[in-house]
Amino acid sequence: MIVESICAIVALYASIRILAEKNTLRKLPFLNVLNFAITGLIALILPHPMGIAAAAAYFVGSTLESNAIASTFAKQSEVADD
Amino acid sequence: MTDILLMVFAAIAILGAAATAIQKNPYDKLISLGMLFAGVIPFVVAGGYLDVAISLALIVPITTIILLQAVWRCRL
Amino acid sequence: MDMLTEMVHIIVAFAVAWILFIATDIIFRLPEKGGVSGAKAIGEEIEKAGGNINGGYMMGNIVSSPDASAGTLLAACGVFIAGIWGGLFAAVLVYIGNRICHDKGYAGTTGAVIATFVIYAFITYAGFAPEQFIAGMILAILTIQGISHKYASKVLGKLWRLRA
Amino acid sequence: MSIIRKVSKILQNQNNLVRVYSLLVIFVIIIGIATLPLISYNENQLYPKSVDMKSPLNPYDRGGEPFEKAEVKAQYPENSRYLGYVTAYLTPFSLFISYNTLYAGTTIVSHPGGIIDEILYNTRGLDTIIETSILFIAFAIAMFLFRRNEKE
Amino acid sequence: MILSFTDDYSFGLLIGFVCILIAFFAMMKETDDLHRLLLTDVIEIIALVIIALIGTDLAEALILPGLVVGIAEILALAEIYIEKEGLVKTPENFLKIEIMDTAPGILSAIMLIYGVILSGFTGGAVAGLGLLFYFLCRGSQKKTQILETISGYAWVCWVVAFIVFMTIPQYWFFAVMLAGTGIFAKVAAKMTIVGTMRGNRDV
Amino acid sequence: MILLYILFAVFAGLLFHGIHRKVIARIQTRPGPPIWQEILHVLKFSFKQTWIPKTASKILFMAIVAAVIAIWSGALYILISGGSLLIIFGVYLLHKITEHGLGLSSGSPYGKFGAIRSVISAASEIPLIASIAIIYLITGSLMISDITAYQASNGILLITAFPVAIAMYIIVLSKVPYSPFGIIEAKEIVSGNKTEHFGVWRAGLEVGFSIKTFVLLATFITLFIGAMPFWMLVLASLILLLTMSFVCAVTPMLSPYDAVTIQIAVIIIVIIYAGYLGVMG
Amino acid sequence: MYELENINIEGQVVTFIPFGDIVGYLTPYTAILFIFAAVFTIIALISKPEKQVDIAFGGDAYYTKNVSVKQMRFQRFMAAACGLATMGGVLSGDVFNFTLFTAMVGITNIGIVASIKNRHILDNAYEYGILAMVGTLPLFAGAAIIVATTGTLSMWILFTPLVTVPLVAKLLLVIGVLAEGMAPVYVAKAEITRAPGAPFILMVHVSSLVLFLRVIEIVISM
Amino acid sequence: MTPEFLLGLGILIIGVIAAAFPDPKTYLNRLINLEISGFGLLLVMLSYNETLALLTFIAVTAITTFVLVRVLERRAIN
Question: Which ipTM was obtained for this model?
Answer without folding.
Answer: 0.90
